[in-house]
Design brief:
single chain; about 260 residues; Rossmann fold
Length: about 260
């Protein structure tokens, strides 16, 4: 069942979070079809988020098309397709539907930073000049208040920090630079147990990395996942000021994104 309030509320939440999503609308229909004109659905990289355009094979095909549009690095931000449900989709009903697909936030690069300390503050000021949407998570309201005011920067107050792991957008670059090992580890452990990201980094030394991997292994994190985060962070350049560390981390992130 389609609920307009749920559809628009979900779209607003995804838009505010900067998470890429696609809307699918039945723009026209004739003959025997499983849903009427105007039926809507929201799709993220994980699949259907809310709404329906008919269920079954036609919805499966619409979800696949929406996810393909989301995954494309270029191409149109919208597309209209007409499907004969019997010939094109393999359904027994002989109707025809016209689907309108529209993609939002595909070009935005999601970056999530746990910790709003000195290096995070400097890093946000570098990243805010790029085409990305930045979320900074911290339990300290005063540090969050010090972040630059920009439409692409979201300050998220959370305690415990790991509670925000489930809300990280798919495909995000994730950095852990909290108050230290004690607060980094629970977030890292939750991510390694439940999520995968193209860039996952923890600020710190090689000694800290070894300690984290040992403790995570003892805590039951699969050995194969212990290679899924980088520590130390950044390219080997510059000095140890927060500003130069931030530049080295941003450079590494751009290098990974380019690959």
């Amino acid at each position: 069942m389609n609920s307009p309030s749920e559809f628009f509320r979900t779209a607003a939440e995804l838009d505010a979070a900067g998470e890429p999503f696609a809307t699918v609308t039945i723009a026209a229909a004739r003959g025997s079809v499983p849903q009427e004109t105007g039926a809507k659905m929201i799709v993220t990289a994980r699949g259907r988020r809310c709404g329906t355009v008919g269920g079954g094979r036609v919805e499966e095909a619409a979800i696949a098309e929406a996810r393909a549009l989301l995954a494309a690095s270029d191409g149109p931000g919208c597309r209209t397709l007409e499907w004969n449900l019997q010939r094109d989709i393999g359904m027994t009903c002989g109707g025809v539907v016209t689907m309108f697909f529209e993609v939002f936030h595909r070009a935005s690069w999601p970056v999530v930073i746990f910790g709003a300390g000195h290096v995070a503050q400097a890093l946000v000021r570098v990243l805010v000049t790029l085409d990305c949407r930045i979320s900074v998570v911290d339990a300290r309201k005063d540090w969050l208040a010090a972040l630059p005011e920009a439409s692409k920067v979201s300050a998220i107050h959370a305690d415990p920090l790991e509670a925000e792991v489930a809300r990280i957008p798919d495909g995000a670059f994730v950095l852990l630079m909290t108050q230290g090992h004690r607060t980094d580890r629970p977030v890292l452990e939750r991510i390694l147990q439940t999520r995968r990201f193209p860039y996952l980094g923890v600020i710190g030394s090689r000694s800290k990395a070894a300690t984290l991997r040992r403790e995570l292994r003892e805590g039951g994190v699969p050995a194969a996942r212990l290679k899924d985060f980088r520590c130390p962070l950044g390219l080997p350049l510059g000095k140890d000021s927060p500003e130069e560390i931030a530049i080295s981390i941003a450079a590494e992130m751009l290098e990974v994104r380019g690959r």
